[in-house]
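I hope you will forgive my troubling you with a question about protein structure. The matter concerns a single protein, recorded as an amino acid sequence and a row of backbone structure tokens. Please examine both parts with care and let me know of anything in them that strikes you as inconsistent. Thank you for your consideration; the sequence and its tokens are set out here:
***
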Amino acid sequence: MKALAVLAAAVVLVAAFVAWQSRPHTVAVPTLSSEPVASGPAAGAGTPVVPPSPSAALLVVAVEGRVPHPGLVRLPAGSRVADALAAAGGALPGTDLSFVNLARKVVDGELIVIGMTPPPGTETGGAVPPGGPAGGPAGGGIVDLNTATAADLDTLPGIGPALPQRILDYRTQHGGFHNVDELRNVSGIGDAKCAEIKDLVTV
């Protein structure tokens, strides 16, 4: 009986060991990325995002006149005439910048003329409003006879110190200019002087 009891106990121990060895084991599963992985033809179906080119934010303007380095300059968007002037080397000594609006923002493709009158018909980009602070030809624009100040008129070639006030007086007395040829009616401006400045003024 004792032998049978010992044998039974041994059988129980062996069975218990076998059952413990065959129990389920926990296996660690690697975490998968939540980002979708493109494969096959669909992988190239989307349009690639191309970062904007740095040159897309640049403005190209021409600076001419009394500057050391006339020509094209490249400026960041939002630059002003002062920045364009600095990029061209600044104004030459003795250049009068009184009627150049250095604070004006430049426009891509425009022409900025410093210290001299551009030839008649020169395209300056239309960025300088006529009759404004830099509305004289020295600032690269056309003078509006109906809005110009005496200082604006004084930038016109051949206009002495007295003629600007006479032009303003005529404008006041006649309710403004209706055409450029009316300049001939201003005392001191004849046909020759009118022909000289008619391409530099407008109404």
Q: What stands out?
A: Residues 143-203 form a domain with the DNA polymerase; domain 1 fold (CATH 1.10.150.320). Residues 170 and 185 are 8 Å apart (CA to CA). The chain has two domains: 55-141, 143-203.
